[in-house]
Amino acid sequence: MKVHLTTFNAKYIHTSMALRWLYVVNKDRFDLSFSEYTIKESVSVVADNILEGGYDVVGISVSIWNVKQSRELAKILKEQNPDIIIITGGPEVSYEPQFFINNWDVDYVVSGEGEFVLGQLLDALQKGNNLNIDSVSSKYNISYKTAQADITELIKFPSPYRLEFDNNERRNRITYFETSRGCPYFCQYCLSSLEKGVRYFPGEYIVENLKYLIDSDVKQIKFLDRTFNLNKKHTMTVFDFLIENHRPGLNCQFEIYADLLNDETIEYLNSKVPKNYFRFEIGIQSTHEPTNVAVKRNQNFSLLSSNIEKIMKGDVIDLHLDLIAGLPFETFDRFRKSFNDVFRLRAKEVQLGFLKLLRGTNLRRDALIYGYKFYNEAPYEIISGNDISEVELERIRDVEEALDKFWNSGRFASTMNFLFEGPYFDKYFDFFDEMGHYYKVKNLPRMGYQLEDLFNYLDQFLKSKGIDACDFLREDYYSNFKIRPTGYWSDDISKAERKKLLYTIGQDKDFLSKHNLTRKIIEKQTAINPLKDGGYLLTIFFGNKKQELVYF
Fold this sequence. Notes:
The protein is of the alpha/beta class and 552 residues long.
């Protein structure tokens, strides 16, 4: 019996930890292989690839981002080979197995952590035994039990982090790593709230595998733990090991519950962690206490924000803060306050997401209570609710787009600092709201634009508000390049005039000698912009360094 496992990742750089665990636990008992694709690939081509393998059983890992592709793949496989057995697993199908058995072209649904359950199912299929297995659903039996794998047994198998399969591409992809499973919290919109307890991998197992990865050419390790810093001793074991074994070029990402940090830990991190080595993702979601109570999210925003500010003062750890629009009891104006509360911290990234009513979550079950209308297809985003209208949510989506372009991109650091310390001080939401509205009114392209276009759009918007940010925009634009750009953020002088001016300056021997320059540097490595009070600003590109000179 030939078995193949597969999934569709959101991007090529992503990898499936689930497939790797399923593979290492079951590969020695069955004729088993696995493959990964991306959601942009042709499902029919993927199906052809799998059918060519002549597999008897195909397992598909289904998550919220690949629901459409997974369903289509199962349908095509069954149409082309009605005898093929299709098993689905993953977070999307685990909590409503009957829906998928009744509506998809699949034979079995595995709920929960399937490493050992898959083996039981394959063994039964191979031997023709009774298929009444806990956490396995079929059209003859629906199981609502969600499997939890025994970690003490998991670690007896070959490491999923050391597969030869990954050696050639590890440096080009994200390596996902788990030191624990489960979540202690009960956020009603999150599937993790349905799991019971937190289970840890042994420290020795963790450090041995981390050492292997650090000694390889991996560039990014993303820890999958829902709350990495829940257990201080466990957390510090990993932090200590990573710091002692720091390798330049490696970045590690963690989901952190900032309320649990204390001054001792923060001081340790700020003094020991090499810059750009750690990145913390911190879910805040809302600063409205009635909202947090409704979704059972325990949070002390005063403590949380104080801890974040202390981390940011250390200037060694990048922070990514999350917000969710559309939560219960949070109106448009109250969400504006949550946004400003969080943005005021000035983290490197602020992710603005929208409430999704995931299958199996309590908030989906209580959708009618909060008047939620939501899309029936994944990712199940809400359309409106008792506290927020469809129009208001669309407006926030425009805010999200402006936020990503002009803040999260990191391309406008000087301009943003100027705006938020001046004209838009403490009016952060208003800026992104107005910028989003400007995009819509002017019908500006949201895709297919050049970098200089973004600078021009922002410049024109600010000028419409009577704000002159020319110097900051120019500084930001040139900071995006190591060599002189072929385009210019501003068309204040024509291309011909620019070329003529650079030629003229290149002939000025006194100027060249004074600044230790050559004609070639001026003509090939220098950008020129007119100054308001006369003369020209020369920006000379020397790789990562830039030199600015004024020429009259």
